[in-house]
Amino acid sequence: METGVEEAIPGRSLPIARIVAPRSVAVVGASEDVGKFGGRVIHYLQKHGFPGRILPINPNRATIRGLPAYPRVSAAPEPADVAILAVPAASLEAQVADCAAAGVGACIVITGKLAEAGLEGAALQDRVLGIARAAGMRLVGPNCLGIFNPVDRAMLSSSLALEEDGYAPGGIGLVSQSGALMGTLLSFGRHHGARFSRCISVGNQADLALEDFLAFLLEDAATRAIGLYIEGLRDPARFRGLLRTARQAGKPVFIVKAGRSEAGAQAARSHTASLAGAFPAFEAVCRDAGAVLMEDPQAMVLACDAAIRLPRWPAAELGLAPIASSGGSTVTFADMLPGAGLRVARMSTATRAVLGRWMPESHVALPVDTGSFHEGTSGDGLSACIRAFMADPDVGAVVVPMTTQPDMAGRTALFPPLAREGGKPLLYLMTAGAVGDASRAVMRAADFPFFDRMSDALAVARALDAEAAGRLRAAAPPPARPDGAGPAPALPPGALTEGEAKRLLAAYGIPVTRERAAATVEEAIIAARAIGFPVVLKGVSRAVVHKSDLGLVRLKLRDEAALAAAFTEVAAALEAAAPGQAEGCVVQEMARGEAELFLGATHDPQFGPMVLAGAGGVLVEFLHDVRMAPAPLSAADARALIEGLRVAPVLRGLRGRPGSDVEAAAEALVRLSWLAADLGPRLVELDVNPLILRAAGQGAIVVDARATLTEETTR
């Protein structure tokens, strides 16, 4: 199993498990004043029942909070497993050096204003790290808020979230690059009855990084679901491997990634370069590994909790069954489903028959308003309908958005047993404010999740559906290389001509248009006669990216006279666009079809070879209907990528138009993915735009392509 808990920094002696659950803790900057960082750390260790030894460090006090205090860490009677440093940046270096001399196993550095504050702070961070490395001492942080470990009652933090009582141990493991956010999520989760195993704030990741703690959580028996708040990765390749390990271990991973909107390459040569970017690649890798990306950190915690405490969502792409006594709440919830990428379930005949016993046939539909029952909302009718939904093969989860009504707490008590009996998630939504607290208390007592906002319930439903899709993807066989895929022809580095890019594609079995080079009008006419009219004429130059924008493309040339006139115009436009760099013209067959797609390939600097698929034609970047995936792809993943596009209904055929050959497009994408995987970092970018899809069963063909290669490197 690829975890590498102790691989990140060779030579370290203290395992992460002992950092998370130390036997002794020195608190540098300890104080009686809980208004200070060091004062809160001591207070919270005692408040939450830390079972190990606490060593307050303060040169001006003999005792702190009833414990003997020591002037420095090296004066303590034993070397601490962990020292928590909450000191000004100016004294940090000396304190870390003292910890190193004392044989401390690890320092949790709460101190901020280091690398995140500029060059001076970065230099200080480097010196501190050098001291720790030389001593074989590990660092958590700096600029972090420490570790919450309810399982071992080791609350190694100064976060005000620890003012609350009752952090019972549970199964949610959390790693966050924001300490303040981690404390907020801990408190938020507690309100909802969610329980945590270990929560780690990694801050600047000077030494131990998010990947190290993710590896630890994968091996941690107490952790059953993992939430990650990520700003940046130290080791993207290792992170990707850890996500795969998590899926193999059956531990769902939910992620919020900061910086989703960062712009990528603004002046890119190709559509691929401008559409790829850091976040799309990150998103593609997470999806491929079966991890679930989310937008809201609070919803991420609720999703982790639901994955642990609710029955498993049975399969991907199932519908939801909303039912409640308020038509307004159920209809509102159903109206929000499409925007969340979800849908209302399609009831089976058996389910409709059950509902028909309780309400008029005219009202048997989803969402269900139990106010339409023959005798009004009743516990028996509500239970019967929910049982029918639980047995319905198209229902992924039942949703109960409860509004204010008599005996809310009594009605609420029905739902946890029904969900456990039915074996599917039941998402209980208490939309009322404080008046619904008694119902929330019922759910907490039943150890069952609840939601306060429709948006949270929707986000969790979408996450559970995506998690089910990840399980399916993990069970799929690895991609198989299709026959005739490669090897790549020898091509020069730099920008390729369209003809060279098509040679590359053809070497992998991707159909391309027939074409012939033409340096004169006479040669163009001879080429057109061989290919057959109508034809396309294009000007060729490595210096030109978007040929159609510069008048270098002429379509539907139906005879020799039209071709001759077009040749003169294109040759003049080519010389104007690329003086001294023109490479003549090319005559191509005129391909026709039912739809157009864009395909792309690139090599992401963090995650390796990637392919893209999207709506094709001149509007590719404006529509931004593009999906991305790591290469190579299986045939099933290629189809899923294309079918996930917003343009997919058009590909299937609309308003009497025949469906296009999506299978041929998927095969082309698979072959392109192997090209990207084989070329590796040599492939800077490759565009296929458009790939013309003929009618279903009649294939697809590349009409235009461009690519950029780097020098081949020896390994």
Describe the fold and architecture.
This protein has 24 helices and 29 strands. The protein is α/β, with parallel strands linked by helices and about 725 residues long. The protein has four domains: about 15-295, Rossmann fold (3-Layer(aba) Sandwich), CATH 3.40.50.720; about 310-475, Rossmann fold (3-Layer(aba) Sandwich); about 515-590, Dna Ligase, domain 1; about 595-710, D-amino Acid Aminotransferase, Chain A, domain 1 (2-Layer Sandwich), CATH 3.30.470. It has a seven-stranded mixed sheet, sandwiched between helices. Strands 19, 24, 25, 26, 27, 28 and 29 form a seven-stranded antiparallel sheet that branches.
Keywords:
alpha/beta, seven-stranded antiparallel beta sheet, 4 domains, seven-stranded mixed beta sheet, 24 helices, 715 residues, single chain, Rossmann fold, Dna Ligase, domain 1
The profile of the biggest β sheet is: 7 strands, mixed
At the first level of CATH, the class of the largest domain is Alpha Beta
CATH architecture of the largest domain: 3-Layer(aba) Sandwich
**Overall pLDDT:** 91
How many separate structural domains?
A: 4
CATH topology of the largest domain: Rossmann fold
Strand runs, count: 29
Strand order of the largest sheet: 9-8-11-10-12-13-14
Low-confidence stretches: 1-12, 262-276
CATH superfamily of the largest domain: NAD(P)-binding Rossmann-like Domain
Rg measurement, Å: 31 Å
Protein name: Acetate--CoA ligase family protein
Keywords: ATP-binding, Ligase, Nucleotide-binding, Tricarboxylic acid cycle
Pfam families: ATP-grasp_5, CoA_binding_2, Succ_CoA_lig
Domain ATP-grasp: 502-709
